[in-house]
Amino acid sequence: TRPADATVGAVDTHCPYCALQCGMTLSRAGRASVRVRPRDPSAGGLCQKGWAAAALLGSPARLTTPLVRDGGALRPASWDEAAGLVARRIKEITADRGPDAVAVFGGGGLTNEKAYLLGKFARVALGTSQVDYNGRFCMSSAAAAAHRAFGLDRGLPFPLTDLEGADAVLLAGANPAETMPPFLSHLRRAMDAGGLIVVDPRRTPTAERAALHLAPVPGTDLALALGIFHAAVADGRLDHGFVGDRTTGFDEAWRVAAAWWPERVERVTGVAAADQRRAAAILAEAASAYVLTARGTEQHSTGVDTVGAWINLALALGLPGRRGSGWGCLTGQGNGQGGREHGQKADQLPGYRRIDDPAARAHVAGVWGVEPSALPGPGRSAFELLDALGTPDGPSALLVFASNPVVSAPHSARVAERLAALDLLVVADIVLSETARAADVVLPITQWAEEDGTLTNLEGRVLLRRRALAPPPGVRTDLEVLHDLAVRLGQPPERFPADPETVFTELRAASEGGPADYSGVTWDRLRAGERLHWPVPAGPEFRRPGHQGTPRLFLDRFAHPDGRARFAAVDHKGPAEPPDEEFPLYAITGRVLQHYQSGAQTRRVEELRAAVPEAYVEVHPDTAQRAGLRDGAAAAVVGRRGRVLATVRCVPSMRPDVVFLPFHFPGAQRANLVTNPALDPVSRMPEFKVCAVRLSPAGER
Ligand code: SF4
Q1: 149 and 296 part of one domain
Q2: To bridge 67 with a disulfide, which of 74, 82, 336, 385 should be the other Cys (CB 3.0-4.6 Å)?
Q3: Atom of ligand 1 nearest to the CA of 16
């Protein structure tokens, strides 16, 4: 709901939460609230989070005035005081310790325009290399694996609706029945045909719908993918024509996979050899088949290779680059795709360009009106950045936008310690999140329905999210905040526009010719309802481009110079922290239907909070009993880095060696108090998905 003085017509826009970006229409409901309606019920409508999305717009929990820390407590301040304080402290810290002493942490929920301007602000206004974002925690392994295999990363390299023709779909590490329920409407045919295969250690609501549920020991997904790959090849299902004509590297990949025959894989993963062969058969015999991966495959210290192993399987069966089949990644955050393309990532410039590529630096510097040599190089990845805060070599100031790392980062107690060691912590947010509570300055910003902007959904389609109502007095958009700070730091005002369409026009130019080319996308085309999947090159017609976009990538060639996809020779290693005598159980983490990410938003929506008000731990009844616990008891999940307090939920379908923690809850209920920050060597993604723990009554140490 929202106060009656706000002006609301019927406005077509998109949900503020996940990467499915379901279409919704907002309208005035009586005098005092905003009504949400799904725009496309045939595409699955909205989930409970989407239906409840408007509740936060008028929430008393939202911030409407800047706050500054004074005598240990946060007190209200004017924008001039707050922004002036931030700019002055940044100047002092930079003068004292250099530009890399100031860091920026962004988010995958930022619009394309905000992600773009945030990266530019870091590199140009601050001159720092120390910028990364929370997408490092959730999509970077799939992005790296896709780049390695195909030369380009776009979550789904085909339209979402193509999935509706699929007879078989393998979902690895994905639970869309809870994370994005309307997505399942696209899998109806595969489910009806008995072609849905789900790989997940837990019997999730998605796994309940599967014809075949493969439940590997946590951390052994890579071995399972090798086993199914092996079964496909050994049973004569290799697509020789495709592999010969359109790929390289099969022999090297097979040399590794040849040692992972299904019976051996069964001993490591616990998945029956017969089920591995059945999975290979279901995919190979379907006229239309897809392999889709998500966080469960990625959030490992071997995440890139694990995704690579699933891509190998898809390549062996000849799925990618063919109409009606393929591999894809189910991106998670609202702008998980766009957020990783426009330059808020430590190693990237806009247009999905590499920051260490001289040609990319020259192009982007030209658009920004600076010398290429003035642009900093690559900086630290997200966890490494957070872990360096307040250390002698690390940043001593941090600006956080659209993220809540106190809850969402791994080993979160250490992250909270590092934040406390800073000289300056600035947080821009809509509510007083756990990270904002620790800040020196808090800047209140607008919400999704109060501003215009574009996002790029999981199929690489650029969407216009529209302003439907006026923001409350006292809040600003992130773009206005960046504009104000940049000017206070001595930048020309026109270099940091606050108008989102103006920013987007500059983003188009910066992306032109890059892998994610948006130069042919205009807001007028989006307003007219065009469905534009990048790349959309403008060519010579920058003002009125006519390119229709690229719904399906790789139909003729993959993006590597030789046009071929690459198999990866990947081998199973297992988790960085396997269980042992002291910590005999695997802890895995994930989402629940009613909450989103750190829960900073959804925990403040009464309907969602009431549905799942606190953390719980799912555990097999026998495991609970061995720990002296029963259903409903207060438990401690204890690991090497900390302990999480949660209420026991006995679930007979759980593996006896596994406990599951949802990661949306704060304080002593933070799942990330125990998660392991071991990083993938390529993507630098932490191993959120598996660590070693023991279970005990909450009162015991
Ligand atoms: Fe919003 Fe995602 Fe739910 Fe759709 S599935 S309504 S985008 S949270």
Answers
A1: yes
A2: 74
A3: 1
